[in-house]
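Box 3.1 A note on notation
Throughout this textbook, protein chains are presented in two layers. The first layer is the amino acid sequence; the second is a token string describing backbone geometry. Keep the layers aligned when reading.
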Amino acid sequence: MLASGVFRQALCYKRPMSFTESLETLVGDGRAVWGFLLAAGIVLALTPLTARLAVRIGAVDVPTDRPRVHTRPIPRIGGIAIVTAILVTGGLFVGDSSPYLGILIGTLGVAGVGLVDDVRGLRPRTKLLAVAVIALIPVLGFDTKLDHLTLPIIGDHDLGWAAYPLTVLWITALANLVNLIDGIDALAAGIVAIAALSFALLAASFAHTDTAVLSMIVCGATLAFLRHNYHPARIFMGDTGALALGFVLAAVSVEGLLKTAAAVTLVAPLLVLAVPILDTSFVVLKRLKYRRPPWDADHNHFYHRFLRIGLTQRRTALYLHAWAALLAAYAILVRFVQLRPEGDIDLGHAAILAAAGLFVVATSVWMVYALEILKFRHLQVLRLKRVRPEEAEEREEAAERVLTPGGR
């Protein structure tokens, strides 16, 4: 009742909801609260059972099969518990809504692809294609697509037929982004929890309550999984969980944020998911630079770099979680501290956004600098002094080969 009253009042005055009103809407919606708690409870109950199942069927992550940061076999189908919680709880609270039914069906399909990979193994290109095909379920079957694009200066533009391939691309890319950052204990689960909570609050501010509810369900499931996944992890979510979580986050962002005719709805998902986007972009560009397939495994992810400069797994996850939370907080700030609340630029709001933006940029630059120190350390190991540019390039390539599995 409280949430609906706040929403009606905001509509009456034709103004966007404030942060406090959005929070009241989110907390006041019983489905969001109970969905969060139920999803968390299911994950806590099922994860130990899933670990036992993994050992029986051989779904165990072995450090020798490809680059790993752990040293002992660990069950890797914890995603079954996460996906079960999302599907059961989502089915109870939002499953009767057509777009979200499509999202849940697609999540189940992608989890199935991930499970096959966790148990038997799939080629990266096969997984990528399978996720793209499954993304057609919510896009074509349930009209979950990015209808228009709203940019701060040029305004709103209808995408027409391009909405379909762009939405499929967004969902496929994000599913794989989450999968790629799932390389150390608690990292992927923590980042997804931060993103889901941010999406829930932003969706509530736009009165997209079903999106907010499903986002809170995802948040509850991933937070509960940290109970067993925090270092030293007793179980991994595997591709079963990582692909499914990336899929549901992408679809939720389309249905609950990107369909809204506000410029912040494009910026917000990019900021909230900036860490996995930057990580994957950096790694792929690095692989292409050295003429390797973009899906090849190596040791160039952000977490690899932090580990090599001496951070523990816990500190590495903490730093990357803090970075992701900072970017998500700025996305929320941009939503609620609007530059033009009544048509004209508000100088006070502009000053707040500028100051916070400078802090976010400075922090991000520091993080990137800390990561790039690794390059200098490698070059020092190779005893690189003042040499010609072409010789420096050759030695950098030699360092890169050292970081590549099987490289010599």
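Residues 16-402 form one domain. Strands lie at 60-61, 74-75, 148-151, 155-158.
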